[in-house]
Amino acid sequence: MPAKKFGHARTIDVPPALPAEEAARIAYEADQGLTSHHFTPGEHPIVRIEHLNKSFDDTLVLKDVNLNVWPGEVVVVLGPSGSGKSTMLRCINLLETPSAGHILIEDDEITNKSAAEVNKLRRDVGMVFQQFNLFPHLTAKENVMIGQTKVLKKDKAEAEAEAMKQLDAVGLADRADFKPAQLSGGQQQRVAIARAVAMHPNVLLFDEPTSALDPELVRGVLDVMRDLAENSGMTMIVVTHEMGFARDVADRVVFMEEGVVVEQGLPEKVFDHPENPRTAEFLGSIK
Ligand SMILES: Nc1ncnc2c1ncn2[C@@H]1O[C@H](COP(=O)(O)OP(=O)(O)OP(=O)(O)O)[C@@H](O)[C@H]1O
Ligand SMILES: [Mg+2]
């Protein structure tokens, strides 16, 4: 078994990643009844997380996380502050380097990749951040174009057409030439979503996309996300405290605490009949 460096003081042993067929079979068995995803015969998870551990210095913040996400599935991750939700998302697109364990996208292990391969991965895994992260000096349209031209090497006309299509989809075609400072927070976040979708990623990660917004702007962003979930077939992993969204839109809800996946299942099951007392307590505290 490979021993990987763990923090400064310890190492942690994890088994090698499972062979794809075996992993898919085990995941299929395990996930029956936990998700409203419609499985197709022979389907493999699009994201596979096996024995993921992450430490910062000597603090272990993800502890043997195992999770499969299926193509087109919408997974909502809930949990108290500091439970490791962002860290897990950031490991999936390698903004953080896992301390041990495996993450596979379409059965391709993404850990221990070269810089060039990591860039390819960043194309395949999109992320929408709490703070939008738009380029302030570029217009909405230019923000949606830049990844397409720089990373996907699309020509300008093609990137512009795609940008206008995606801005239209989030209701902002008429704001295409506005800069971020001229847009509301909700509009900026919708531009950020359009930018991520324009890259046509395999998986789109959302880290509390509405938490920085004034309450009256939350709805518009959630509507855009709901439309994506229901009509685009996009695979989405969403960290959010929006329980209504989770209940209505998620195929599966995952509850994390202290770096551990404590409970997961169908939203109605986890919300109405949580098995774990900590899940019940957390959900009770935010209702
Ligand atoms: N770069 C870092 N260096 C050191 N510790 C970190 C770093 N990033 C996160 N942590 C720690 O890891 C733990 C998990 O943090 P994380 O941001 O993943 O939690 P979270 O569930 O997203 O919380 P929140 O709901 O507040 O966003 C926390 O204890 C945090 O302090
Ligand atoms: Mg977070």
UniProtKB/TrEMBL annotation:
Q: What is its main location?
A: membrane
Transport as a keyword? yes
Q: What keywords are annotated for this sequence in UniProt?
A: Amino-acid transport, ATP-binding, Cell membrane, Membrane, Nucleotide-binding, Transport
Q: Which Pfam families match?
A: ABC_tran
Q: Which SUPFAM superfamilies match?
A: P-loop containing nucleoside triphosphate hydrolases
- Ranges for domain ABC transporter: 47-283
Q: Where in the cell is it found?
A: Cell membrane
Topological type in the membrane? Peripheral membrane protein
UniProt entry tagged with the keyword tRNA-binding: no
GO MF annotation, one: ATP binding
CDD domains linked: ABC_HisP_GlnQ
Top-level taxonomic group: Bacteria
Against InterPro entries, the record matches this protein to:
AAA+_ATPase, ABC_ATPase_HisP-typ, ABC_transporter-like_ATP-bd, ABC_transporter-like_CS, MetN_ABC_transporter-like, P-loop_NTPase
Which Gene3D superfamilies does the record match to this protein?
P-loop containing nucleotide triphosphate hydrolases
Family of the protein in this entry:
Belongs to the ABC transporter superfamily.
Report the protein name in the record.
Answer: Amino acid ABC transporter ATP-binding protein
Organism expressing this protein natively: Thermophilibacter provencensis
